[in-house]
């Protein structure tokens, strides 16, 4: 059984992940053999700040029976090595994918510096863990909900991390987002008469026929960058004709069935000197059946640049107003969607 745990910085995701893997371990300890309990640590101790974080995590794990393994890069190679611990039947907590991605991209022994592919290397490593462990909990980090444009290097990092997180969510039996210490299940696998199937709120309701899959009325799909929102929306609305807010005109926006990157359309709209109220009025007047896919950009530090502050707030206010007129609202995390309305 594999669970992927995500959440923002300081959200309580580490404590939740430890709690879950320890519970699974206690359950197995009631059997004939007591399985090992491993913590795979991948944060490289660079300096005082990271050393303090590592020490804090060690204190959290103290007395819980963990054996710590420090694997900073190349999970497949570490797992296959002759001196690797026997992971068969074990309980493993891997923390965290955001650090591992950075290590593979930038560390001297990482994938990018040894002729390998970061995304493939990490996904393969987690797959190998899942094949060997009785229970596996993997922690990743939500860094995808800010408004300020990223540098080229940061864009590449977020793209890799988002791709990896979506693949791991697909692989996992359960995906949990931790919000201020509260775990929210966004994907679970349940046993049915026809076998095991994913339960992702929203798509399942339509497949089951419990809700009519209507195309009348505005629809809204949001979530952080690189979370798979467009792919999710296309599963829900396979017949929609799409425009891209990165470069489409107002006329295209008002005549299309669906728009991706709506936040970037808003950015261009504001740069042209137009107001949020004008855009909201145009959409409500001429395209009330629009399907909108928009990045959730209101989190993170308040931008220092005046336009960036205006842009971030305007996207929030425009979307808040438009959502009043929607009959379906979804939030996508790691490729898994939850219906909010």
UniProtKB/TrEMBL annotation:
* Pathway it works in: Cofactor biosynthesis; adenosylcobalamin biosynthesis; adenosylcobalamin from cob(II)yrinate a,c-diamide: step 6/7; Cofactor biosynthesis; adenosylcobalamin biosynthesis; adenosylcobalamin from cob(II)yrinate a,c-diamide: step 5/7
Is ATP-binding among this UniProt entry's keywords? yes
User: Known Gene3D superfamilies for this protein?
Assistant: P-loop containing nucleotide triphosphate hydrolases (3.40.50.300)
Query: Could you tell me what reaction this enzyme catalyses?
Result: adenosylcob(III)inamide + ATP = adenosylcob(III)inamide phosphate + ADP + H(+); adenosylcob(III)inamide phosphate + GTP + H(+) = adenosylcob(III)inamide-GDP + diphosphate; adenosylcob(III)inamide + GTP = adenosylcob(III)inamide phosphate + GDP + H(+)
Question: Which one of the record's GO molecular function terms can you name?
Answer: GTP binding
UniProt EC number: 2.7.1.156, 2.7.7.62
Q: Which top-level enzyme class is recorded in the Swiss-Prot or TrEMBL entry?
A: transferase
Q: Among its keywords, does the record have Membrane?
A: no
- What keywords sit in the KW lines? ATP-binding, Cobalamin biosynthesis, GTP-binding, Kinase, Nucleotide-binding, Nucleotidyltransferase, Transferase
Q: Which GO terms describe its biological process?
A: cobalamin biosynthetic process
Classification via InterPro entries:
CobU/CobP, P-loop_NTPase
Q: Which domain of life is it from?
A: Bacteria
Query: Pfam families given for it?
Result: CobU (PF02283)
Q: Which family does it belong to?
A: Belongs to the CobU/CobP family.
Function, as annotated: Catalyzes ATP-dependent phosphorylation of adenosylcobinamide and addition of GMP to adenosylcobinamide phosphate.
Its recorded name reads Adenosylcobinamide kinase
């Amino acid at each position: 059984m594999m669970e992927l745990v995500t959440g923002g910085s300081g959200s309580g995701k580490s404590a939740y992940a430890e709690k879950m893997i320890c519970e699974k371990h206690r359950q197995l300890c009631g059997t004939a053999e007591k399985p090992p309990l491993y913590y795979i640590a991948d944060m490289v101790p660079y300096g005082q700040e990271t050393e303090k974080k590592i020490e804090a995590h060690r204190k959290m794990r103290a007395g819980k029976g963990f054996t710590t393994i420090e694997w900073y890069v190349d999970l497949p190679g570490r797992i296959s090595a002759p001196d690797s611990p026997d992971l068969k039947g074990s309980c493993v907590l891997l923390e965290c994918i955001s650090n591992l991605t950075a290590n593979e991209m930038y560390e001297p022994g990482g994938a990018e510096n040894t002729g390998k592919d970061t995304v493939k290397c990490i996904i393969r490593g987690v797959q190998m863990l899942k094949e060997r462990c009785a229970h596996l909990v993997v922690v990743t980090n939500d860094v995808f909900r800010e408004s300020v444009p990223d540098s080229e290097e940061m864009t590449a990092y977020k793209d890799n991390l988002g791709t990896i997180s979506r693949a791991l969510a697909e692989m996992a039996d359960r995906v949990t987002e931790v919000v201020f210490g509260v775990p929210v299940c966004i994907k679970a696998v349940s046993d049915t008469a026809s076998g095991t199937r994913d339960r992702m709120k929203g798509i399942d309701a339509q497949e089951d026929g419990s809700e009519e899959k209507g195309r009348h009325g505005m629809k809204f799909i949001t979530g952080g960058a690189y979370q798979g929102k467009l792919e999710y929306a296309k599963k829900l609305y396979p017949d929609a004709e799409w425009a891209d807010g990165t470069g489409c005109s107002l006329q295209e926006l008002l005549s299309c069935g669906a728009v991706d990157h709506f936040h970037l359309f808003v950015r261009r709209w504001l740069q042209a000197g137009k107001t949020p109220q004008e855009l909201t009025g145009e959409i409500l007047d001429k395209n009330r059946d629009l399907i909108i896919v928009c990045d959730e950009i209101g989190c993170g530090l308040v931008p220092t640049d005046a336009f960036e502050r205006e842009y971030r707030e305007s996207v929030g206010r425009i979307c808040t107003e438009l959502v009043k007129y929607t009959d379906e609202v979804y939030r996508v995390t790691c490729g898994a969607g939850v219906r909010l309305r």
